[in-house]
Amino acid sequence: MNTSTISGPEAIPFALDLLNKTSDKASLLRLVSEVCELARKHNILLPDWVQDYLIDAINQSRNNPAVDRADYILALLTLNLSHPDSALEAEATAIINRAYSSLKTLPSTTGDQLISSLYISSTFCDYVENLDITRIADTYKLLAGKLNIPLSPLQQQRLRAIYADNAPFLKDAPTPSELINRVILNAFNDYRTKGADSGIDPILLMTHLDDALNRRHDPAFFGAPLRWYAHTLEQWVNLTLTPRFDRLPAPRRREIVRHLLHTDLYPVPVSYKHHRAPQ
After folding, report:
1. 3-state secondary structure of 67
2. Which of 39, 73, 83, 263 is the most exposed place for a label (fewest CB within 10 A)?
3. pLDDT single digits (tens) 223-250
4. 191-215 burial, b for 16+ CB within 10 Å, e for fewer?
5. Degrees (nearest 5) of the Cα angle 256, 261, 266?
6. Alpha carbon 240 to chain centroid, angstroms
7. DSSP annotation of 2
8. pLDDT digits over 40-97, tens only?
9. Residue 171: how many CA atoms within 13 Å on its side-chain side?
10. Cβ distance 258 to 235 under 8 Å?
11. Residue 110: alpha-carbon gap to chain centroid
């Protein structure tokens, strides 16, 4: 089950079971928020402990920098719906407006921070003071120059949400797919030109190309990226047959094996399928 989101009320019993088994409540902050919101929308009565779980998760997350701010805001506003408290709404509003204000400081903002701030400003725009929607649109248009790989699935999902929420103001801006492709292709060209000096991990680059070629079948990556991808897979197959492969760190060996076993674009030998991935 995806712990970041649930699709409908029929999933609530599975989500409750997961919540009941997890002691790290902050890690499931978004899940418990969505359970409470779904139950409210569909008039489903939840066990009393779920509300306490949400309160505990908020308390555990309040000063935890590892917790996603958007998830924390969602939890505050969800709790405020069931137990109105001006302090909860005020805390959420303050975080939202800090995110919106940070859009002014583009030179000092990383791509990851920018996506987070844009997503918060767009998703919770009703709480933004003196909202200027063109600031969100103009910031989105500058993302291509601020982003680099890896782009996590969550970041890609949020890019699509930002674009969907602001599409009327983004007619001359790249779509999320075009933006993501541009970031990956920029990384590919940088690595092909500079190699290790680019600072780009070829494993991460291969992960993005694997998604573009094997899953999305995106023609933007045919040509040089596809040739490099296939050549790298061939090199990795040969590497696994040498003692040097066994001297690589276990996480790197696992990633190489994972790519070789799941690609559709390279005829991995049948004998290789029995190669045991490092534990």
Report:
1. coil
2. 83
3. 999 999 999 988 998 898 899 998 999 9
4. beeeeeebebbbbbbbbbbbbbbee
5. 95
6. 31
7. -
8. 888 888 888 998 999 999 999 998 988 999 999 999 999 998 889 999 999 999 999 9
9. 2
10. no
11. 15
**Residue corresponding to tokens 């000092």:** 108
Query: How far apart (Å, rounded) are the C-alpha atoms in residues 12 and 227?
Result: 46
Q: Does pTM surpass 0.85?
A: no
pLDDT for 277 = 47
Task: Please tell me the distance from the alpha carbon of residue 184 to that of residue 156, in angstroms, as a whole number.
Answer: 12
Distance CA 61, CA 199 (A): 33
- Which pair of tokens denotes residue 25? 């409540």
CB 16 within 8 A of CB 36: no
H-type alpha helices, the chain:
12-21, 29-41, 48-61, 69-82, 86-102, 111-123, 133-141, 153-166, 176-194, 202-210, 224-240, 243-246, 250-262
- The CA distance from 90 to 70, in Å, is 15
What Rg do the C-alpha atoms of the chain give, in angstroms? 22
